[in-house]
Write a structure and sequence with these properties.
The protein is an alpha+beta fold. The chain has a single domain (3-95), classed as 2-Layer Sandwich (GMP Synthetase, Chain A, domain 3). The chain is built from 4 helices and 5 strands, in the order H-E-E-H-E-E-H-E-H. The strands form 2 sheets. The protein has a 3-stranded mixed sheet. The protein has a two-stranded antiparallel ribbon with strand order 1-2. Strand 3 (40-46) and strand 4 (49-54) form a beta hairpin. The protein starts with a helix and ends in a 5-residue tail after the last helix.
Amino acid sequence: MTETETAAQPVTDLKDRMLTALESVIDPELGCDLVNLGLIYGLSLTDGVATVTMTLTTMGCPITQVLQNMIETALSKLPEIDDVQVKLVWEPAWTPEKMSRYARLALGYYGS
């Protein structure tokens, strides 16, 4: 393993653990987690502050604050994370094609 691979491993491991934590955040309206719904666009950690870049299925989603609170709770369980910031973005726009195969099956989506 090269030095670059060794240095990258902790970052990859942390991102995997962050994604695993976010898989526990279930959209109460859809009954599927945010990761499999394809709503998580990016994750970063700087000085103990986790930033989650994400979108929602629709603008004006009535449960935006609920989801943000659930994300903060899930990620704050990781020892490296002291604070969580959720950054909502609208581009690229979310479409059902962003869902994982699991989410499509779970929600009965058989579109293109």
